[in-house]
Predict the 3D structure of the following.
Amino acid sequence: MNAVPVPALPNALRPKAMPIARHGEPQHGAAPVSSVQTRCGTCNLREVCLPCGMQQLDMALLDEVVYTRKRIKRGESLYRLGSGFESLYAVRSGFFKSRVVLEDGRDQVTGFHMAGEVLGMDGIGTNSHTADVIALEDSDVCVIPYSHLETPRLRHQLHKVMSRELVRDQGVMMLLGTMRAEERLAAFLLNLSQRFVARGYACDEFHLRMTRDEIGSYLGLSLETVSRLFSRFQDEDLITVQQKHICILDIPGLRSMMSRDQD
Amino acid sequence: MNAVPVPALPNALRPKAMPIARHGEPQHGAAPVSSVQTRCGTCNLREVCLPCGMQQLDMALLDEVVYTRKRIKRGESLYRLGSGFESLYAVRSGFFKSRVVLEDGRDQVTGFHMAGEVLGMDGIGTNSHTADVIALEDSDVCVIPYSHLETPRLRHQLHKVMSRELVRDQGVMMLLGTMRAEERLAAFLLNLSQRFVARGYACDEFHLRMTRDEIGSYLGLSLETVSRLFSRFQDEDLITVQQKHICILDIPGLRSMMSRDQD
DNA sequence: CGTACCTTTGATAGAGTTCAAGAACGGTGG
DNA sequence: CCACCGTTCTTGAACTCTATCAAAGGTACG
């Protein structure tokens, strides 16, 4: 029942279109306990997942790829710093955060991850993971043993995914390095919006799965600043906020907030 | 003549050990104009370069890998945002910065790159580069056509390099997201020091190849703050600074500067 | 040898943090 | 159904760190 990212909310909050975001397999009344077999060829996420860009390729190839599924409950971790690396994980449904922790206890949220995104690549280099990945809601992942990445196409897809991750990181550095608080939050909202759209959900209305604290950590701001900015954006009719429920009213307005010259 | 990262400086500044940092090939009087053939098997950088970790593997394998070399003069770019992706580049000698530029002109230095490091992986995802990479001194790279990464070992090495890059980015996010100015600069100096050591240079004495402005951009600080902190670190006998020439006097002191509890 | 760039240092101001307190929400159990 | 609890969110006020503005000194390179 957690296949839809916005679980128990009024109709208005449901995705306007959801061609992708349901499980490929029929969902039985009782959720499967932990590991199920899943076939890429029938997975509705295939257009945004690891083999993204493979639509034009032989489906036959995809059909052969079968992964184990794993459920992670809200608050539990997919993996932790120091745990051994064996597999990559594709998020099937749900929402994760990744974070790194400093010796003195400070931590930094390094990313939020939704359906179709790939996790675990930090472990390839040292054979053990360098971050914690924690489910922000009950979630489902496909386990992709690293050793199974045998076909050239799939390997190239992995390269693409990793490369995009590097590019995403550049964006975060830009955000943390040069942007002011309001620009960061605007960029954050627009990014979330884009990613929801890519998954067939409404671009202008969604439910934040993370706390103000987690947003703040990710954006390099205090939770109070995040809260204040949400209120200010609302005053300026850019968005509406009710706790974790966000409506974006003025996408161009948010966008213009990100270029400095025109205040 | 630019093989040594510290070109024209007093003896004290020269690397204390330099088992790695000279060209594998005999250097002819006049520097080669642009492209030369280079063999990994005889390259003195092989222990820190793309095939790092391959020491224990067949050298025979390495010997077959031959790359084209390319010279980039100070101030020139290895590639630019939007330029097509074909190859990865391994830095043989010299020093680079990478940066991304926002529409409104602001830019962010996203990394500094020295001998043995691999550049260009940002281009794999979209088949075009997403950043500018600019030489901070006359430099030398090996051109590694992406299509040549054919052996399983080499591919795995690429995965490792990319993964480590992702982990490095996590570190930068931690830096930009949670650290204060002094912590950032301390972390920066310690990181540089470590990387020099890995290449056989002195850990406590080196020549900065970048300006205060570039350091500031990388660390999310203004150049004035960087300059002030250098001066303060000097007052506190942690380092000595003379323009771009740095001596680290107290590594533990710098390290303790990075944990917040003990002020 | 002069010019352009880089660096240092001071004074001021502003953005965002921190501390604090109260309000809203969500779940639990009586 | 309501009261209760912990967690999350909001808002205010004071303070701090860092940016910005400004000017002078140094260095390097043509």
